[in-house]
Amino acid sequence: MPTAPDKSPAPGDWTPTSWQARPAAQQPVYPDPEALHRVLGQLARLPPLVTSWEIENLKLQLAEATRGERFLLQGGDCSESFDDCESAAIASKLKILLQMSLVLVQGGKRRVTRIGRFAGQYAKPRSTDTETQNGVTLPSYRGDMINCAGFTPEDRVANPDLLLRAYERSGLTINFIRSLIEGGFADLHHPEYWGLGFVANSPHAVEYTRMVESIGESLRFMETLTGSVMADINRVDFYTSHEGLHLYYEQVQTRQVPRRPGWYNLSTHFPWVGDRTRALDGAHIEYFRGISNPIGVKVGPSITPDALVALAERLNPQNEPGRLTFIHRFGADRVEKCLPPLAEAIRRSGQQVLWCCDPMHGNTETTKSGIKTRRFEKILGELETSCRVLKACGTHLGGVHFELTGDNVTECIGGASGVTEADLSRDYRSTLDPRLNYEQAMEMALLLARLLAQNR
Ligand code: PEP
Ligand code: CO
Q: Which residues constitute the domain of residue 342?
């Protein structure tokens, strides 16, 4: 019987530049291509930000999460800004993720892998190429790596020097994170200093208090046992991630290393493909199929079960465990309908994937006064439904992906601390998507720990 011609590219056809023959969505247009290529040449000579052995360790951890032995916590800003590359902002982002992970370890009773959405999250996909204000039309702002947020022609021109600045700031960020972790965070060891006053206002106050107390007891127990300050915390692994959107930038970070086969993107441990750039025959999937890093693909309501299986086969032809994470983001109202046929199709295909829920991007809404926000209950609702639906499909929720910050901004509505719609304008700092604040993120971790414990 004649078979349909196989249109998938052969593995041997891949190079770090083979994406260039494919349609590349969401790329900036540089008015001076020579200047771009000069910068790319400089970037290609700079030392990498991460190493292949860290990347391979993360892949092993994600393989454990795929088997249900571990849980993935990924979080950070929608987009980093050059202005926020300063010590307090970096420390508070790291701290909230470490604290949340301690809650998840304690409540969920399994190990947790932490991946920050930072040290490189500087390029953003946009729904339109241009923005019009008062009759003036300019290119859209695409993230600090590409242009500037101000609304003047000079701000919005794509400037290749910003790629270098982004790389350098990513290096500064990761350097500071590595030193903070190396030194240990003293006040992590004492949940009583965490700023959990909001817990008292929750209907789950007693349960939260018990969980936090038991974290404190475990930490003190470990200290007594090891005779040192919480050895485990001082040795946590921490990984970085960003959306692999700007393909020239990713290409020049793609390197071979001694004594290991393959190509690694050494600008981050875990790059992901966005929901808008995941076309099977597009440039992003072509680039991602050839790198050895563990990778994520965001999937929203427009994906079909066949398209999802085709993506898994293209991106992970060897079905290597830990290689592929689907970060699903349907929204609380659609997840019940969208997720089961996808999980079912993947189960039937035999592909090993990690299911990670991004409960943020399908739950964005705009208030009557025009402020972009997200509701705590919807975020939690999407997590709860995902957990239940995946279990019913014979698999499990293996991770979560949040947009959050360690500061008490007012960008999302709800939670025990009681941020209302009227509060949003009080301290709204994000230039793009609204983030969970410190209290909302901690409460989300407590509720998620409870959910994981119930679903063991
Ligand atoms: C994001 O993660 O900020 C984003 C743009 O998400 P998505 O690709 O899921 O829309
Ligand atoms: Co976002």
A: 50-117+252-454
